[in-house]
## 1
Amino acid sequence: MTENTTPAAPARRRAPAMDPDRRRAMIVTAALPLVIEYGSAVTTAKIARAAGIGEGTIFRVFPDKDALLAACMTEVLRSEDTVAHLESISLDQPLPARLTEAAEVMRGYMSRIGAVAGALAAAGRLERPAAGQSSEDTRLPDREAALATPRAALAALFEPDRGSLRLAPERLADAFQLLLMSAGRPGAPDPLTDRELVTLFLYGALTQHEEAR
């Protein structure tokens, strides 16, 4: 008589533990769209569900929710992708076309920064850094430093037309960036399109103009 035996089920192997840096990055990636949507009102429980982890896992990586919000700010300030997009704009196009593409890229970048910065401000724990402190120490985002690198990429878009420009490409890039920042403030009625912004920047408010006397 043959004895029926059921093969033993193979032992389940636990997935290797994720190192803290990767876990941190994964949580921030999951949190960013929620912070942009809900601001500082987003709960760590909601973030945990989006990340597919337990809520306690968040607090093994971050001491509190404000620290997580600050990490989101640090991440959204990263300009590598924005600069890569600006540098991929073809210089063979006319200047208005170049700047219209750049406006779309920069407004998206600055909109994300503004949304997360607003969440940090609403948390009510921002302080100006003291001498010798970094912005990360106080959780105050250094947006000006973050915008400096894209500004250099913007200047390169003006460079092919340097001979016909009133000002140096660097100064024009700074002015163009300021225009984009002011045009992107929340709640602005009837916001200008990218093309309208570029036309206004390059040609002014008048359809015909004269030099100021």
## 2
Amino acid sequence: MFFSKQITQWYTTHKRDLPWRNTKEAYPIWLSEIMLQQTRVDQGLPYFLKFLEHFPKVENLAEATEEKVLKLWQGLGYYSRARNLHATAKYITENLNGEFPNTKDSLLQLKGVGDYTSSAIASFAFNEATPVVDGNVNRVLSRYFGIDLPVNESAGQNLIKEKAIEVLDKKNPALHNQAIMEFGALQCKPKNPYCHICPLQSKCVAYQQGMVERLPVKIKKTKVQTRFLNYFVLIDPNQNTIVQQRKGKGIWENLFEFPVAEFSKKPKLIEVEKEMRSIFPIEISSTEKANLKPVIHLLSHRKLIADFYILKIQSLQKNTFQKNQKLLNLSELETVPVPVLMANFIKEYLL
């Protein structure tokens, strides 16, 4: 058990003091694992603490409104995680008497919980001898065993899982799994890993064969799409405005934004004005573009290029807006969950 012994000894000396590591309770462990999916620890930690402050138990999370959950999640991205979190909290509270399933297989039945997350919770909370395989583990094992198969394809991932089981300390899987993940995050980093002081150096294939910088192999599959967003910010003399809730399964589902016209290609001004008149068949006193340069917002699979137009009108009446829209005073904009793109605009131009 050379591998496990070395990384657990390294871990006891170098591990970060993180709150979800100081408990065997499934709820905070589950919460942290969902939040840290595609999110750095330093970014996710404040959100974790904020959620525990508002929802100390899974029952508290279940009782909250989706709007409150999304508002607390605002800025963390990948909002389907928040919606799944909320749905799962309700399911556990209403159907499982507030008790989390205690095996990997049963945890897999929860919404938003996949192979990695179920293994992590089963291991950390219930000490089940199941390996965790995340991006850090992919990197450590690819380098240690010299695996040059793409880790984001089935053959490569299957081999990684085989090796993860092979090196797993089945007597203390929780410690082992925490150690290998932390080792990948801090020691066996993507760029400039600390190979010269690595305790696995003598048996690491990548180090011995000079392949460290080339592993792991990952094939890029995501095609980035560019979308042009033109937001219309209605403001009346009483500083009231309209926001609308995004529906469907696209980005930012159930978050609020100003009424918007979306284009797949950069629109001409006449096209934007045509959409504006179509959305708002009301008299507009004046129109002014708020941002001098387009606002660029990058997501994992989208490049968003946004412009904001301030539309002054005489008054906002109930018949001005639709069912998915909400009348708010500008001072109330910070009370609803919005995408970061919107939050930055509101803070800079409206508050």
## 3
Amino acid sequence: MNRAEPRSRRAVLRLGGSAAVAALLAGCGGDPGGNGGEEDQSENGGEGANQSEDGNETNESDGDGNETNESESGGNETDGNETDGGNETNESEDGDGGASGAIEPGEIQLGGETQAWLGVSPDQIADEENPTLTLQEGESYEITWENLDGAGHNIQILDDNDEVVDDYETEIMSEQGETQTLSIDEVTGEMAQYICEPHQATMNGDIEVQ
């Protein structure tokens, strides 16, 4: 009985030692695995931080794009101003054209009858009695008139002193339907009026020189 007891104690110690060795081996195997997991997580965390920084840089580049758009809108404003300036130039030119009522160099047509000279052409004197002839200084014109009533008429260009300017006058003509032409080589500032000599009280009109 006494010999059997030591053997049972040795068996228990052996079993206990085996269990301890197994625990140590298990512990050593677990530590590398745990450390590796923490390192992977830290590395993953680092990569995540880098990605977030990259995202911030992308946002900053987006901001630069917005600034570029603002400069483009500034260009549109400049284009609008230039267009407005072009419109103002056109208006000023139209205003100058409308202010000038001078007859273009060329032929002027009148009808002659005792009561008055009758404007025929250009359109700006058409159907007017004793129309004012606005002529351009230095230009040449031809004044053609038709005898409308068979009375004796002629045409003369006078100055402010009622003197004929540079012999600009025609002979008296009394045939109805006939025409005469007075050629003016160069308009001068001394020209003041045109008349029919026999009927100057009724057949007279002003000349304006521009």
## 4
Amino acid sequence: MTFEELLDLASRNVGGSVVAANDEFFAERDNLINPWAPTFTPRTFGAKGQVYDGWETRRRREPGHDHAVLRLGVPGVVHGVVVDTAFFTGNYPPEAAVDGCRLPGYPSPDELAGADWFPLVERAALHGDTRNRFTVGASRVVTHVRLTIHPDGGVARLRVYGEPVPDPELLPDTCDLAAAEIGGRVTDCSDRFYGSPGNLLLPGLAASMGEGWETRRRRDHGNDWVRVRLAAPGVLRLAELDTSHFKGNAPGWARLTGGDGEPLLPRVRLQPDTRHRFRLAHDGPVDEVRLDIYPDGGMARLRLYGSLTAGARERLAAQWADREAGGG
């Protein structure tokens, strides 16, 4: 697995926000965390020049640098960063650095300015119109990141890929244990031709088929499937299988099993463009679930509601405290 297969902790999809920037004269800072790929239409001019899908500062005429501060949608350990300069060719920053910090609650820009920042990506060269990839070796939990560009210019997107680390004090007794924002993740699937299976675990409702998981049309006697590692072991009570927006291409049926093959939900019929909810009767804890769809098709979201085991909650608390102290 490459770090780009992990969750983008800064994405607007999981609640990320750009809380401050010292300059955004040519293009707005909020574009940095848009979940879709950057676009460009040549010779599209506004009052300030060519329109860019990214963050772009004015040309500096004195020594210094520009910066933008992002609040991650979910706290986590960062494993990789992409500074994407797509379509910025003669106006990209020649160098950049990325720092992280951890502050509780919801600090203001002034409070973040005085935070204890530590390096995630040391000052490094950038290339224009490129996804500049940097592996991160830090093991501390990060709540905010700061992108510094030297000396000025434009960046289309900042992707901050990592492992969510939930605060167990903020987890309710019953929650969606498959949710990406608390650490649920897809570990394998049969097919991802039209859409990523990771979309199944994103928060909120899908706005279109493009925000779900969709497989190609099968021409054999098999079926498609996806395997999900829960954020932590728990007892599942309710499943939501959402086929919203999938009308002529929804699966006909679906089934859920645990990691060891134990039945959680027998094969059930699905309807197109519908949020289905099913009670689960399995009493034992599970840490992995397999969703089988028959024979193929698309789904918008998968929710697996349940309660953490006592041992799982204790392990999450220990992990949170260890990462707070900077441990591995």
